[in-house]
Write a structure and sequence with these properties.
Blueprint (H helix, E strand, L loop, with lengths): L14 H20 L4 H8 L7 H25 L1 H21 L3 H16 L1 H15 L7 H29 L3 H4 L1 H15 L12 H8 L1 H20 L5 H20 L7 H6 L1 H30 L5 H24 L4 H19 L8 H28 L5 H26 L6 H23 L13 H12 L3
Helix pairs in contact: 1-5, 1-7, 1-9, 3-4, 3-5, 3-6, 3-11, 3-18, 3-20, 4-5, 4-6, 4-9, 6-18, 7-15, 7-17, 10-11, 11-12, 11-18, 14-15, 14-16, 14-17, 14-18, 14-19, 15-17, 16-17, 16-19
């Protein structure tokens, strides 16, 4: 397939091209929430304590946080469509393994496979969208498609709980794993039929050259550094400071390694020099941190203090998802960046101030108002920062850059769980909610300062056609 616009399809982003990308991008968030309703039945069915099933949640988060940028890097070297298809196969295998598992260890393996597989979708989709846009001669980001990727994720995350409840109630807990198999097979068939193939691989490369292009040392260091950091966060409120120290040492070693790498996995020089791109990562992570503090913290509070059932608490939080999805598409279609980013920061600050007013006698509708405001912040931040990423990331590094955006989001959500665990360690109280509110306000103030700052915009290096990058010329482009 040529990068010449004259040979591009007249409708480059018709539903046949976008449908498998949207389905693939939805698999990760829906698997994150699908399991929630199945933890107790799994513990009962396998005869293990309920607390041990939390490892299934942790396994997916760890796998995804590391695999998102890793899949992006692999896509830059081997081709986005190839990695996308490989990910779908892993999802199908992981779903099958989980569906027939007889012990917790097999379920853990299943969750890791599903995490690795679903993590391939978003960064490779971003690469394929950029390649398609270049072939169509588009200078501006295809905002509607980018917005669709975000909405697919949000819709899937919100559907995970009710769909999981229906599946477990009707078919048993194994169904939340097995449901991945038919969905993955449909996505596989659609991708093979409707998504154009990558260019031919350069088979003259030796294994050492491929390892260098992938920067396997950098990937291993990133995995170790991220795993130790996330395990420290998961261990709160009982901190293992030695683990945090080990993580800090690994991060320092990783930076030293990447500064010498020919084709760095974590391009430290790019992160330092391209301040708009780095700011997008931090903004996205901070908004996710605030949003998940509401999801985790306020949910516990309305159940423990206000006496709502799990269903009632879920309905109170539903507007957050709905508003977020409604905001994304109009913002993405207009390729807006600064306005939505600033508005998201201010919305986080307003929502955090609203949490400060919660107490045992507060009107329950106030919780709904807070979720609406925070939902708007999530939608504005998701759309604005994704467009900023698309514009600022070098074309040949968009896969890794897109994966890192998702990783920052995972760190934000995991950190929120750690915060609520520390604050509500002994009991869920009004005082604890006020402490969470002040933490959110502090986070939001930092977010506002970052969002209002105007770093010198660096025009993204578009480079040659990403299709060429995927056909084996990636190595030459990175030679220094």
């Amino acid at each position: 397939m040529s990068g010449n616009p004259s040979t591009a399809p007249s409708r480059p982003f018709d539903w046949r091209f976008t449908a498998p990308l949207f389905v693939g991008s939805a698999l990760n968030p829906i698997n994150s929430s699908l399991l929630a309703t199945a933890l107790l039945p799994i513990a009962t069915g396998l005869g293990v304590p309920l607390g041990r099933t939390a490892a299934l949640v942790i396994a997916l988060y760890l796998a995804c946080a590391v695999a998102q940028p890793t899949a992006g890097k692999a896509a830059e070297v081997f081709g986005a469509r190839r990695v996308f298809l490989a990910g779908i196969v892993l999802v199908a295998v992981g779903g099958l393994v989980g569906g027939v598992a007889q012990e917790l260890g097999a379920l853990l393996a299943s969750r890791v496979l599903i995490g690795l597989g679903t993590s391939c979708a978003y960064p490779t989709a971003m690469l394929m969208v950029r390649r398609r846009a270049r072939e169509a001669g588009l200078d501006q980001p295809p905002g509607g498609v980018l917005g669709g990727l975000q909405i697919a994720g949000i819709a899937a995350a919100s559907l995970g709980l009710p769909v999981g409840g229906v599946l477990v109630g009707a078919l048993g807990w194994r169904s939340v794993f097995l449901v991945n198999v038919p969905v993955a097979l449909l996505a596989l068939a659609a991708t093979l039929a409707w998504v154009p193939p990558d260019g031919p691989l350069d088979r003259s490369r030796r294994p050492r050259e491929i390892a260098s292009d992938l920067d396997l040392g950098g990937i291993a260091g990133f995995a170790a550094a991220m795993a130790t950091l996330l395990l420290f966060l998961f261990g709160l409120p009982e901190p293992k400071w030695g683990l945090l120290g080990v993580s800090a040492l690994i991060w320092a070693g990783l930076v030293a390694w990447e500064l010498r790498a020919r084709s760095p996995f974590l391009d430290v020089r790019l992160l330092v020099s391209n301040k708009p791109l780095t700011a997008a990562y931090f903004r996205f992570g901070l908004v996710q941190l605030c949003a998940y503090l509401v999801l985790y913290g306020i949910t516990q509070w309305v159940e423990a203090v206000r006496g709502l059932s799990e269903t009632g608490a879920g309905l109170l939080l539903l507007p957050m998802t709905l508003v977020s999805g409604l905001v994304i598409l109009p913002v993405s279609r207009r390729n807006l960046v600064r306005g939505p980013i600033v508005a998201a920061a201010l919305a986080c600050l307003a929502g955090s101030a609203g949490v400060l007013l919660l107490n045992g006698s507060a009107w329950i509708g106030w919780v709904v108002a807070i979720t609406v405001v925070i939902g708007a912040a999530m939608g504005l931040a998701g759309a604005g920062n994704q467009t900023a990423l698309y514009a600022q990331a070098p074309a040949e590094q968009l896969g890794t850059a897109s994966g890192l955006l998702r990783t920052f989001g995972y760190v934000g959500s995991i950190a929120s769980s750690a915060v609520t665990g520390v604050v509500f360690h002994t009991d869920v109280t009004d005082r604890g909610v006020r402490l969470i509110a002040w933490i959110m306000i502090g986070i939001s103030v930092v977010l506002v300062l970052i969002s209002f700052a105007r770093p010198k915009t660096q025009r993204a290096h578009r480079g040659p056609d990403p299709h060429e990058t995927e056909s084996g010329e990636h190595r030459a482009r990175h030679r220094r």
